[in-house]
Amino acid sequence: MxxxxxxxxxxxxxxxxxxxxxxxxSWTNSATGTxxxxxxxxxxxxxxxQFRLTGPATVNGTADLALANGFVPVPGNTFTCIVxxxxxxxxxxxxxxxxxxxxxxxxxxTVVFRAENRLPTVNLTVLNGNTQLVCTEFKLLATxxxxxxxxxxxxxxxDGSTVANAxxxxxxxxxxxxxxxxxxxxxxxxxxxxxxxxxxxQTVALTTSPLHFLQMGGKRNGGVFKFxxxxxxxxxxxxxxTTNIVEPTTxxxxxxxxxxxxxxxxxxxxxxxxxxxxxxxxxxxVP
Length: 287
Hints:
By secondary structure, the chain is mainly β. 0% of the residues lie in helices and 59% in strands. Strands 1, 3, 5, 6, 8, 9, 11 and 12 form an eight-stranded mixed β-sheet that branches. It has a five-stranded mixed β-sheet with strand order 14-20-19-16-17, with no helix packed on it. A four-stranded parallel β-sheet has the order 2-4-7-10, with no helix packed on it.
């Protein structure tokens, strides 16, 4: 492709279509401009995008580097993507796709990108499916690998908070939970021995049981047992427990009121009977 005069990029443009050589007089990438260079090999203008200019180039904004045609560089491969009579400025931001990190090298007449590190591969799986019940703990499995080195850290985050973290391991299991029927996003982050990072995400849809159905949340630290319930707006619910389900109702012990937040009622049973084989619960509406 030949560009007559000055090419000014203030948005998103690609240096090739999809791979190729662009010749022209001068080129400017603004502070808000993004230029994409696709890299499909090591031959300039043929296997990867290149600008060749008879005049000056003003470099700014973002360079987005994308691998093409199944090409995978090795560390140290260089790609001279801009050749000009005079280069001024630098890219303020480098972005990558295709699982590789690059650095930018600047000379008075060129901009060269260098392959630095093949990023780790990371996967995140929600065990037993991506639809879960509120109030109930569920497990997530993160796995990672690194072709050019090793995994130094692997973690799982829920809404920015760490739920699992492992050093020098290729897998980690975390526990997720939410008390409310919302979509919750989990992120797995893998870091390799060169500081490269990759991410994987999973969204879990939290659903509720029918109205007035006690959803058992399971045993927690210290022997605490948790359960939740969808209730009626404006109502209060008293929790009762027994170790013998047989009537009369006088066998039931009053434990306390359920806590209500955003239409979900919760209760934490800290236990009034020790060494019990079973415990049964009921919640009754009270004034």
